[in-house]
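Subject: Sanity check before I submit

Could someone independently write out the structure tokens for this chain? I want to compare against mine line by line before I put it in a report. The sequence has 165 residues.
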Amino acid sequence: MAACWDIRCSPSKCHIDGPSGASSDRCELHLCLHGNRHLEAGSHIIMVNLEAYRGLIEAALEYSGGTHSFDDIAAGIASGHMQLWPTEKACAVTEIVVYPQKKVLHVFLAAGDLDQITNAIGAVDEWGKAQGCESLTMGGRFGWKRVLSRRGWSPKMVLMERKLR
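---
Independent answer below. Compare away.
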């Protein structure tokens, strides 16, 4: 799967030129994933070389239990279902999860420089609020508990897995 998409959005519809060429009426983040990284404040277009973050994303996916591939992440970002929060040496990926009683912004992947990751995660608060989310959640390795508890996070549950035979 190619790592480049051109997404043009109007208030009611997104047109995606890329691997699927599909259109969507769900547009939470407007992305144009091309060669150079360019983030423009107030713009509806963000250009990111997603391929530059492949190593970080794939390293984080090693701990995901096989739930996603890099191509799945790229397609999710291109469709607007997932959001990429890039920094110079790190990135985080979020998705909005709607439960029957609340809506949350969930950080399900983060990789790279620890300070840049926590700063990127902190920067998504306002965006999450604007989307109607009540809170931020994050799944990850046990070490995140120590790191994030210093920044106002608290553990809410433990996720466990058992393979079905």
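---
OP: Matches mine. For the report I'm noting this point. The first strand starts at residue 5 and ends at 9.
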